[in-house]
Amino acid sequence: MGINAVFPDLRDALPRFAVSHNSVPDMSLIYDWQSLRRLVNRYGKTPLPATEAEAGFTFVNYKPELTHDGYTLLVDLNEPENGVKRLEINEKVNRVN
């Protein structure tokens, strides 16, 4: 599947969470692959695959910004041609104030 296929799901789910909770998820909600998958499957339009191997990336770390309006997600892309490549996803989300 790969990050290009699941990235829209991540970009959809985390802002939906932020609108519902007036904050991005904290580290108690996203701390590994299963917790990320659970949140995306609940708030996203399309569920993530059951495993990291199927998704094409491995969860490394998640950290919300202190302002709770953005986050950094570190993942390792598993590219057959190039091996593992670390990707840092930094997103700001709109919240309801």
The averaged pLDDT comes out at 86
The helical percent reads 25-40%
Which H/E pattern describes the elements?
A: HHHEEE
Strand order of the largest sheet: 1-2-3
Residue windows where pLDDT falls under 50 for at least 5 positions: none
Estimate what percentage of residues fall within beta strands: 25-35%
Please tell me about this protein's structure.
This protein has 97 residues and is α+β, with helices and mostly antiparallel strands. The chain has one domain (3-92). The chain contains three helices and three strands, in the order αααβββ. It has helices spanning 3-21, 33-43, 52-55; strands at 57-64, 70-79, 83-92. The chain has a three-stranded antiparallel sheet with strand order 1-2-3. The chain is globular and about 40 Å long. It starts with a helix and ends in a 5-residue tail after the last strand. 23% of the residues are buried.
Keywords summarizing the entry:
single chain; globular; 3 strands; alpha+beta; three-stranded antiparallel sheet; 29% strand; 97 residues; 3 helices
Short structural description:
This protein is of the alpha+beta class and 97 residues long. 35% of the residues lie in helices and 29% in strands. The protein has a 3-stranded antiparallel β-sheet.
Tell me the layout of helices and strands.
Blueprint: H1 3-21, H2 33-43, H3 52-55, E1 57-64, E2 70-79, E3 83-92
Antiparallel strand pairs: 1-2, 2-3
Helix pairs in contact: 1-2
